[in-house]
Amino acid sequence: MNELEYELRELFQGRVEEAERPVNLLPAVRRRASQSVRRRVGAGALAGVAVIAAVVLPMVLRQPAASSPSPEISGDHAEPRGWVPVDYGKAQVWVPPSWLVGSYACVGSTTQGVVYVGTTPDASCATPPNVLTLAGPKLNGSARIVRINGMTAKVRSAASGSLSVYVPDLGNMQLTARGPLAIRALGTLRPSPLVTALSGSPQAALPTGFRWHEFGGIKFAAPANWASRHGTVAAACSPSIAPDTVVLSTTPPIGGLLCAPYAPVPAGYLGGPQGIVVIAAPQASPPPARKCIASDREMRRFCAQPPDGLGTVYTLYLQPTGQKKATVMYIGVGGRGRFARKIIDSIRPASGR
Amino acid sequence: MDEEFGEFVAARGPSLCRTAFLLTGDWQAGEDLVQEALAKTYLRRRRLRDGAALEPYTRKVMLSLFLTARRRQWRQELPHAELPAGEALGGLDEIAERAWLWQALGQLSGQQRAVLVLRYFEDLAEAEIAAALGCSAGTVKAHAARGLDRLRKVISVSEEWSR
Description:
The structure holds 2 protein chains of 2 kinds. Chain A is α+β, with helices and mostly antiparallel strands.
């Protein structure tokens, strides 16, 4: 700190000590707050009269016009209270928890709404009043450019009342909504936790509140309060993730890793836990992998499942240089994806190699 | 008024008043500023995440009100090429120099003064100051550097006058 900065500190301290007097702010704050409310009410009443004059009167005087076929979804939309997230690849939408989510040709029609992921409903399917599909090719033809929750999107409405949105920033995701609640759900579109999880870069320091684990030739950090155990894991499309737990296994998952179309489940059951399964065992038939996060001279890193699956388990194949077999890491990308990001950032070859 | 908000005002009000005094240069004006900022915060308190957000939010509102008032005031003021005669032009002892410094603070822009007060009185980090002023950390650095530079010039003028 130089002399001037020191002088400034002394000046501020001295002047405050000189000028300070006891304050009783509450009565004045209360008075100002109620004055402000009264002003707002007055302005609101005036605005109400203006709205009636400008909007309602012309409507009364004019012939009734056809309603707009294009519902407005641009702008920023908060998640409605009680709704739950459905993550699909880089996209996340919020829907009522009772809605069914699946990738069968017919997901169902017994609930108020359904979400199709990775597929579109078969033409012969009975569908409920609200249908949301998270899939489909890029929109062609004319479309409006809008901003939804800060992302640029193309929007096109069909004569049937459905609305399609194409978002390049979310892995070229196209979503289509039919029905008022589905269109409202479309307005909650935002990046999934996966986007946060994959936006990092390797860091040298151990994140605060994390501890290191070494297994299968790799080293990674996980929250210090997570349990850690060795054992086997059951699997379907991916191993089951135990909440807040690191599972280290030397045997392939029981049940194999067969990804069938997702059977319909209520959206409320989809919330993926945050946890890690690391398997250091030869994989019988590793799924086609592609590079999705940065590889370097020390380690090759591949995504076994490209980031376009339903749910919140992210799979990485990690192969330190000189190691014959890859170690597979399954990360439950729950919450906002921040833990997963720190975990992915921390992955490196084990220090004792 | 909410109990929690009342507790917040009782606990943090005096500290906010000190900062506001250093911003405005006058205790009464500072207290007015804090009252207005607290009233605005009170009306928006339900939108805040939790009680911990009350103080940063109030500080942000206070700074915004201060800067708006300064901008209005600025347009009404006539610029001076030289500092007007002050209370302590005689000697350059420590007290006189600080009196000069205090006067010189009045010559800074609202942002420069706010950055210096937040940095050297409240001891806030650059990122916190940036958040409070709604600008980038780089802008905070620039305001601080320009503000200090200006003060240095004023001090050097005062030294020349006192020789």
